[in-house]
Amino acid sequence: MRLAAALLLLLWLSLAGAPARAAEGGIAVVVGKLPGAPTALGRAELLGIYGRKRELWDDRTPIVAINLPASHPLRRDFSLWLFRRTPQDLQSYWNDQYFHGVLPPPVLASEEAVLRFVAATPGAVGYVSLCAVDKRVDVVAVLPASEPAAACTPH
Amino acid sequence: MLGLAAPASTQAQTLLQEQPQPETLPDAPPVGWQLAPGLTVSGYATGQFLAPLGDTELPDNPGDVNNTQFSRRARFNLSHLSAIAWWEPAADWKLLGEIDLQNIAQLPSGSGAQYGAAASAYVALERVYADYRATDALSFRAGKFLTPIGHWNQDHSDPQTWTVLRPLISQAAFPTSVTGLMAFGSLPMADQWLDYQLYASNGGEWRPSPWTHPFDSAFGGRLSTSLNPDFKMGVSLSRFFERETPGNEFLLAGVDAAWTLGRAELSMEAMHRRSPGGQGGERGWFLQGALPVAGRWWLTGRQEYYRRDVDGWSSRSTLIGAVYKGVDHWTFKIEWVQLSARVVGQPAGLLSSLTLAF
C-alpha cells in the first residue's frame, strides 16, 4: 500500500513538474510591448508569418519576422517545430520565393539582438530561449526546445 | 503603429549591419543587391552546351529538315542573362520586373533557327507588374506576369529547375505569360496555407515572345499549397482565346503535385486542353524525379507524354541526367534526352548547362 502511495506521489510530482521543466527549456515567441501587438499566436499563424504568406497584422502594421542564424540551436528547433524541416531543408521553398521577390526573414546574430529589435520595432516578432525573456517583450507562444533547461544560456 | 512603413526586411537590415555574423545558412537563396531601401536587384546567367542527336529538332523552313545545321550540330549557347528587380516602397506595395537576354552568344554562330536554343538573340520582357496587398488574403496585381497554370511555368528559371529541357506541357498548351489583372492571396486552412490566383486578360500582351501565341483574352484560376514541404499540389483552370486563332475557344484543366522525402523529390504535372470547336485539343503529362546520390549530386529522370487530339500526333520523351548544386548558387546540369517525334524547339541528345544565380 505504501509502495503504491509512493508511486502515486512520484507520478504526481513528475506530472506536476513536467510542464515547468518544459517551459524553462522552451522557446518563447516574443513581440514588443506596443499598442496593437498580438497577445497569442498559433502554429498556423506563425507558419504564415515565417513563410512570408502573412505580412500584415490586423491593423495593417507590417510584420517583421526575425530569425536567428541557421546554425543556432534555437533556429533549428523552431524550424523543425514550425516547418517540420531544418533550415537547410527549406532551400527549394526559399529559392522559389526568391524569384517572386520574396526574401526569407532577416537574421539577427543573437537572442539579445532579437530582444532589442523586437522591443523597439512595431510589428516585429522573434523567438528566444524562454529563460531569456525579460520585461521588454511579451510572450505570445511557447514551444518545446530540444535543449534541456539546465543548458539555458541565452546567446 | 506604422501606416506606410518600410518593407519588412528593411528595418531589420539596419540592425543586421551592426551584427558581426551574417546569415550562415549554407544553402540559402542569394540575396541580390540592396541598391536602396526596399530595392533589390538579382538574376541569373546560364550557358548551355547542346549536342543534338537525330532529326528531332525542326527548323522553321521545312526544306531545312535534313540540314544538319539544325539537327546535329553541337553548339554552345549563352542562353540566359536574366535581371530581376523588385522595389517595395511600402509594406503593401511591390513593383517587380524581369528582363531576360536570351541566346546572347552562340558558337558556332548563326544557326538561323527562330525557335528554341538555336534561335537568335532576343530581349524578353518576362514580367513587369505592380502588386498591392489589401490584406494577406487579398492582393491585386496589374501588368505582365507568368500564367498561373501548373507549377513549372511560374517557377521555370534555370536555378529553380532540375533539368535543362523544359517539359512540353509547361509551355505548349497555353501562352506562358499574361498581360492583365490578378487577384491573389493566401488563406490559412487547417494547419496549412492555401494560395489562390484569379486572373483575367483582354489580350494586349506587352512585348509578346516571337515563339509563343499570346492570349487574345483569358480568365482562369489556380489553387495551390506551397508551405507544406512534404507534399505540394495545385489545380489550374483556364478559358482562353489565342491571338492567332481568335474564334477558337480553349478550355484547360491541369493538376500538379510534388512529394519530398528528405532531399529526394518526385513531381508531376498533367494537363488537358480542350477546344469545343474541335480544333486544338491537346493533353499531356510528365513525371519527374530527383534523387540525391552523393554530396551535392542528384540523379534526375523524367518521362513525358504529349498528344494532339486533332490528328493523334504524339511525342514521348525520356530524360536521364545528373545535377550538381554547387556552393555560391551555381548549378551544373547534364542530361540525355530521347524524343519519339520531332518537336519544334525541343532538342534531343546530350544537353548540359551551367547556371549562376546572383
**Tally the helices of chain B: what do you get?**
2
Give the helix level of chain A as a range of percent.
25-40%
- Strand arrangement within the widest β-sheet of chain A reads 2-3-1-4
What shape does the CA trace of chain B take? Answer: globular
- Which stretches of chain A are poorly predicted, pLDDT < 50 over at least 5 residues? 6-23
Helix content of chain B: under 10%
Nutshell version of this structure?
The complex is a heterodimer of chains A (155) and B (358). By secondary structure, chain A is of the alpha+beta class.
Question: Can you describe this structure?
Answer:
The complex is a heterodimer of chains A (155) and B (358). Helices cover 39% and strands 14% of the residues of chain A. Chain A is built from five helices and four strands, in the order αβαβαααββ. Chain B is mainly β and 358 residues long. Chain B has two helices and 17 strands. A 16-stranded antiparallel barrel of chain B has the order 2-3-4-5-6-7-8-9-10-11-12-13-14-15-16-17. Chain B is globular. Mean pLDDT of chain B is 84; it is low at 1-9, 16-26 and 65-69. The chains are: A alpha+beta (155), B mainly beta (358). Chains A and B meet through helix 2, strand 2, helix 4 and helix 5 of A and helix 1, strand 3 and strand 8 of B.
Which key terms come to mind for this protein?
heterodimer; A: 155 residues; 4-stranded mixed sheet; 4 strands; B: 358 residues; mainly beta; 56% strand; disordered N terminus
